[in-house]
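Recall from the previous lesson that a structure prediction takes nothing but the amino acid sequence as input. Here we apply that procedure to Class I SAM-dependent methyltransferase from Polyangium sorediatum. The sequence below is the only information supplied.
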Amino acid sequence: MDPSEIWLRRWHDVRPGATSRAFLRGKPSTYEWLADHARPGDRVLDLACGDGALLSLLRSYGIQSAVGIDMSEGELAAARARLGQEAILVQGRAQALPFEDSSFDLVTCHLALMLMRPVEEVLAEVRRVLRPGGTFAAVVGGRIAAPTEDAWTMLVRRLREEPFEGPSIGDPRTYGEEGLRELLQPFVNVRIEPIHVDLSGTPDEVLALFRETYDVTRMVPARVSVLEEALRADWQALLRPDGMLPCSMGVRRITAATEAFR
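The prediction returns the following tokens.
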């Protein structure tokens, strides 16, 4: 197993649900966008399902044949608590999916593809388990400039000045459209759409987002409180009269299909 996978698995074992705590309140909803690709009767696989937030939404849409896979037992325990023991949850790696060929109509992945490597192996497995003409829908993080400066752009600028510890994570190609198109060449009907997800909140709420990022865990511990105080000072000029901070995160929404006949 890649050292970054070991690091990520431990991180999620300790902090299950971090992604859903941030993005369930995001607008537009990245979870709803993924769930909207499912049709009644579809067999759905959610890669890196985390605490089951998307699986729960799929269930509310009437999708009964949905399976979640994640390498973190902590996340899967949280998913079982959310969904109940009848949920089909599998511990495993996206690079070696324990499913038969053409098992699913739809494969989804919420903010995890860019963390996986070798990402080519993941995408080959996605193609293998999708039926001919099946759909892959994913949301990936991206280096997408905000239209105006907000709390997150200030945070990113501060983070660039910090030393980090631990292994490098993911594949840089997944953070840009050119790299994604290169990786997705074996698929057809590829669409990539950059959007900004509104995560605005009070300074405390935005700092809570920061505290559950990979970056803060990789910082020198003594620097975290120093950085938070600097951010609170930076953000004063952005505070709205209602005490809210504008905050958005750039992501890319991806859809791709397998060839109808292969």
